[in-house]
Design a protein that fits this description.
The protein is an alpha/beta fold. About 30% of the residues lie in helices and about 30% in strands.
């Protein structure tokens, strides 16, 4: 069985579509096999998106959705944070095809760009906010490389948001973020999921 972080999925493509309501806004998403959470938006991603929106209501900077899958987090952030610019990156080519469809479907294409990248390999710019639901099944080294790369690609004062389950390594993620950033706060936690926020302070 192919993992969602496979670069070139070879399984036969099956397209699914679902609707998702957040507050008074409705989003439509196309998904497929060989991508993460193909039948609907997973609880962790939903909690992450809601937390970032709640803490950044008047935000007008740049956002990176790292390891974006078919793009629900990035699309929702672009839909709510109207003055933001959003980049979405993933290594999975099928996921990126779906991102293009979902950006168009939800009419946020004027402020969204899509990047094919394994972690930060093909990303040169810096961002005000980076969000990630990291690929736990890819292993701790890969996940920690997301955190290390995020520190390098955040502007001074920029924030990294991570969602992770307690049973999948929340304590070690907290420890790693404190090691890299010198700080790590719990922005929210529900049903075993933690939203961690780390800020890049250069002083």
């Amino acid at each position: 069985m192919e993992q969602y972080f496979t670069q070139n999925p070879t399984s036969e493509k099956e397209i699914y579509k679902f609707d998702w309501n957040i507050g008074k806004q409705r989003f439509n998403f196309y998904t497929s096999n060989s991508v993460f959470s193909k039948k609907g938006m997973d609880f962790g991603s939903m909690l992450l998106a809601e937390t970032v929106i709640k803490e950044n209501e008047s935000f007008d900077g740049s956002i990176l959705d790292l390891g974006c899958g078919y793009g629900p987090i990035g699309v929702i952030l672009a839909g709510f944070l109207k003055n933001s610019s959003v980049a979405m990156s993933d290594v999975n080519e099928r996921a990126l095809e779906l991102c293009l469809m979902n950006v168009k479907e939800n009419k946020v294409g004027d402020r969204v760009k899509i990047i094919k990248s394994s972690a930060f390999e093909s990303i040169d710019e810096s961002f005000d906010v980076i969000v990630t639901n990291p690929p736990i099944r890819a292993g701790k080294d890969v996940v920690f490389s997301f955190y290390e790369g995020a520190f390098k690609h955040l502007k001074s004062g920029g924030k990294l948001y991570v969602v992770i389950q307690k049973k999948q390594g929340a304590p070690s993620t907290s420890t790693k973020l404190k090691e890299i950033f010198g700080n790590c706060e719990v922005s929210d936690k529900k049903s075993g999921y933690f939203i961690f926020r780390a800020e890049k302070n250069m002083s």
